[in-house]
Specification:
- The chain is mainly α.
- The protein has one domain.
- It has 14 helices and no strands.
- Helix 1 runs antiparallel to helix 11 and helix 8 packs antiparallel against helix 14.
- It is globular.
- The N terminus is likely disordered.
- It comes from Haloferax profundi.
- This is Transporter.
- InterPro entries: EamA_dom (IPR000620), EmrE-like (IPR037185).
- Keywords: Membrane, Transmembrane, Transmembrane helix.
Length: 293
């Protein structure tokens, strides 16, 4: 790991810390919005593309034009997977607690490991297998505890399932785009992926009849906040940090998101997680740590 080999004056570790704080606000912003889940996801992605597209067109025009057809197809597949991730995770927050939803959706490294073994013929170590087993035990505890305790969530088991679907589709997004990222620069890649993601979300929202306009200014500010905070300062900075830090450091640091989101939900939403949720979440995070470190 190095903190000195980077462009500019911002330390990668500092940038990573800012990014974790930024992504921790995502669940709170989603919960504050009263728009349909697909609409929230659509505008988050649209505003992110709107912010990044000028940079891509001015500074990365040649890189955009030189993306091969094969890489465009792969990036498009990643965009569809990302749309499924946003749709399922945003909807999960309507049914379960922030603590459960964010912890379960953060389990995507486990499914990346399984997918890499199943589809890319990558070896799975004993440590990875142990981590996956520990995390799955924590997921079961979290899901079953919601049936036995008063978590305050309307449909916790359904919401937890959607969060796990969000983790699986996030893993599909990572696996689909992993080879492309070695050939295409960050900004052109995410612009293509987010554009396809927005189109996928738009088509499903229109098919469902979700209204795309008529929202008060507060909602538009929340949509923009989702793009600037978790989108630009969160995931985009995390991708930047990956070029300067070991991937294991970044992966383990992402375990701070469920903790940050849970603390924010406590103070901003008055949402107190149950003891089984805390214990199950700690086990899940422990399993992710074993797998990613």
């Amino acid at each position: 790991m190095t903190t000195s080999a980077h462009d500019g004056s911002l330390s990668p570790l500092t940038g990573l810390g800012v990014a974790i704080l930024a992504v921790s606000t995502s669940a709170i912003l989603v919960r504050w919005s009263t728009a349909p889940s697909l609409v929230k996801a659509f505008y988050r992605v649209v505003f992110t593309v709107a912010l990044l597209a000028p940079v891509a067109l001015v500074r990365h025009r040649d890189a955009l034009a030189s993306i091969s057809r094969r890489d465009l197809w792969a990036a498009s597949g990643a965009g569809v997977a990302l749309a499924a991730h946003f749709a399922s995770w945003f909807e999960s927050l309507n049914h379960t607690t922030v603590a459960a939803s964010v912890t379960l959706v953060q389990a995507q490294p486990l499914f990346v490991a399984v997918g890499a073994w199943a589809f890319l013929d990558e070896r799975v170590s004993r440590r990875t297998t142990l981590g996956i087993g520990v995390a799955l035990a924590g997921m079961v505890l979290m899901s079953l505890s919601d049936l036995l305790t008063a978590s305050g969530a309307p449909r916790p088991l359904f919401g937890n399932t959607l969060a796990i679907v969000g983790a699986v589709t996030a893993a599909a997004y990572v696996l689909t785009g992993r080879s492309v990222r070695s050939r295409v620069a960050l900004v052109p890649y995410v612009v293509v992926v987010y554009s396809v993601c927005a189109l996928a979300l738009l088509s499903v929202a229109v098919a469902r009849g979700d209204p795309l306009s008529g929202y008060p200014p507060r909602e538009w500010l929340l949509f923009l906040g989702m793009a600037i905070g978790p989108g630009i300062f969160g995931h985009t900075v995390i991708n930047w940090a990956l070029a300067h830090l070991e991937s294991s450091v970044v992966s383990v640091s992402l375990l701070g998101e469920p903790v940050g989101s849970t603390i924010l939900a406590l103070f901003l939403l008055g949402e107190i997680p149950t003891l089984p949720t805390i214990l199950g979440g700690a086990i899940v995070l422990g399993g992710i740590y074993i797998t990613a470190s």
